[in-house]
Specification:
The chain has about 160 residues and is of the alpha+beta class. The protein contains three helices and ten strands; from the N terminus they run ααβββββαβββββ. The chain has a ten-stranded antiparallel β-sheet with strand order 5-1-2-3-4-10-6-7-8-9.
Length: about 160
């Protein structure tokens, strides 16, 4: 019986996901190393199966879990997702598009590369941004064309902490 209990415990532990581990850290401050070498720090505000939302000062960071290399500051708590509605990374971007939010996309590349703009469209596997000149508002005169970015290339989405999630 002891052997069966131990085996069931191992099977149960094998079903725990990174999202479950991160969900156990809600409200805690962590640091996350991304595949492009950038480390982000913040307080865990939300965790979905594909992404985590960190709050840091006056900004929000959405980090795709597929791009995470290492996380520091986690405890031993594990929490499974109970919500029936699951928000994908594309869903989070659609909320930003609906809000006409200015964002900075950090891209997966050997050198830190970012694209700043307003989310115009979110497809199944891409996002379209209207690029803005650095340090200026969203007026027509400040627009510098649009860019299409595959969702697989996104390592972080930075926006104002006031955006809805």
């Amino acid at each position: 019986m002891e052997r069966e209990i131990n085996e069931r415990a191992r099977v149960e532990a094998a079903l725990v996901t990174l999202a479950d581990v991160l969900r156990g850290a809600l409200g805690q401050r962590i640091s996350v190393l991304m595949r492009n070498g950038v480390v982000h720090h913040g307080t865990v505000a939300r965790v979905e199966s594909q992404w985590i939302l960190l709050r840091e000062g006056n900004r929000s960071l959405i980090l795709p879990l597929a791009k995470v290399v290492r996380v520091r500051g986690l405890g031993s708590a594990r929490t499974q997702q109970l919500a029936r509605i699951r928000y994908t990374l594309a869903s989070a971007l659609r909320i930003l598009a609906r809000n006409r939010a200015s964002v900075v996309l950090e891209l997966d590349s050997p050198h830190t590369t970012t694209v700043r703009g307003v989310v115009e469209q979110v497809g199944a596997d891409f996002v379209v941004l209207t690029q803005l000149a650095d340090g200026v508002g969203r007026g027509q005169a400040n627009q510098q064309g649009s860019v299409v970015v595959p969702l697989d290339a996104v390592t972080a989405i930075m926006s104002s902490a006031e955006n809805e999630f």
